[in-house]
Amino acid sequence: MSHLKLAFLLGITVALGPLALDAYLPAFPSIADALGIPHADVGLTLSAYVTTLGLAQLVGGPLSDRYGRRPILLGGLAVFAVAGVMISLADTLSDMVIWRVVQGVGGAFCAVSVPAIVRDQVSGQEAARLFGLIGLIMFIAPAAAPSLGALMLTMGDWHSIFLMLAGYAVFLAVALQSFLFPKLAPRPKATTPVRTLVTNYMLVLRHKTTMRFVGIQVMCFSTMLLFITHSSFIYQEWFGLSNSMFSMLFAANIILMALLNMANRPLLRRFSSVLLLRAQVTLQFLALICLVVAVSLGGSLWAVAPFIIATIGWQGAIVPNNMANALEFFPHLGGTAAALLGASQFTIAGGISALSSFIGGESLQAIVLTMLACSTCAVILALGAPKAVERELDKAT
């Protein structure tokens, strides 16, 4: 299978995650009114989904290594679709949170399978380029998600957004079964006992270079998730924007992510992904410093929004480089390594996001300061031991 076709199929699969996160953001006020709860409490449904999305990958990753990518990925899509229907029928916050947790399990099995499939096929700089191409294709989803959610609101109500997500999961199952799995070379099934599969996590946890990349992923993703969780509050309540204007500014983040992703691909032919990663994490940190200054000075929307867009935009280049490096050292344990990476980023980021909803969730300054704190940790990890990291990558390749 060509890399373009593989990237397209995996890209539209990864897009399920951003759709589940972003499509219902414009509906937060409607959901709050319908359920009779404060606006900030709706963010708990997002945090519950993201946290489960992380923890359940710890189960899905080893299972995909042992039983193959197909049953885990298709099973995850089935669980996701059923949960989407049940969320659309929820009439209390507790029901909605419970089914978002179930949906997170299905989403986790999908999320952990995609990077594992990539690692099955390629490695090194080629993996970074393929991750970049997948990211470029899937950027359409988060760019369109808020607008799609706003459109669904005009045609119906917030329930229809989750029915749409369920329908998309069914479409993916049919597409992958028809066009992806028949073209992939079968992987030999693992014959190791369960205790060895569990022990495999220790192999990853003890690998200092891999854990450095995991830490970078966690902190950068936390920065982005903090914005996603509070984006409706920032733009619709703090600055008083309409649904359509909110969707346009949200899409601007994704457009810049796509542009920086495209710029990263040719740079990989001249520079190592580690070197590029350090520069990109540092530039994201500088954008956040400017954002904090703008907010502290009481800047207007047009003084604040460009720095938000720049901060989130750098994710488009950071993620493919970091994921390729994090999975490089475990060619036979791609699912396990991807699970630890995904579980760490979603669980820790979800916890930080949930905590921010309770502490300072109604203060723009508190939100951007928390984002800066996460970015600071990422910079420390990226700059901490550059020579050691490059030496290990050279040995692996």
From TrEMBL:
NADP as UniProt keyword = no
**Location of the Major facilitator superfamily (MFS) profile domain:** 1-389
Q: Which SUPFAM superfamilies match?
A: MFS general substrate transporter (SSF103473)
The record's InterPro entries line, in alphabetical order, gives: Efflux_drug-R_Bcr/CmlA, MFS, MFS_dom, MFS_trans_sf, Sugar_transporter_CS
Any single biological process term in GO:
xenobiotic detoxification by transmembrane export across the plasma membrane
Mainly resides where? membrane
MF term (GO), any:
xenobiotic transmembrane transporter activity
Cited CDD domains:
MFS_MdfA_MDR_like
Q: Does Lipoprotein show up as a keyword for this record? A: no
Q: Which residues cross the membrane?
A: 44-60, 72-90, 96-118, 130-155, 161-181, 213-233, 245-263, 275-295, 301-321, 333-358, 364-385
Q: Where is the signal peptide?
A: none
**Keywords of the record:** Cell inner membrane, Cell membrane, Membrane, Transmembrane, Transmembrane helix, Transport
Which family does this protein fall into?
Belongs to the major facilitator superfamily. Bcr/CmlA family.
Q: Supply the name of the protein.
A: Bcr/CflA family efflux transporter
Organism expressing this protein natively: Marinobacter salinexigens
Taxonomic lineage of this organism?
Answer: Bacteria, Pseudomonadati, Pseudomonadota, Gammaproteobacteria, Pseudomonadales
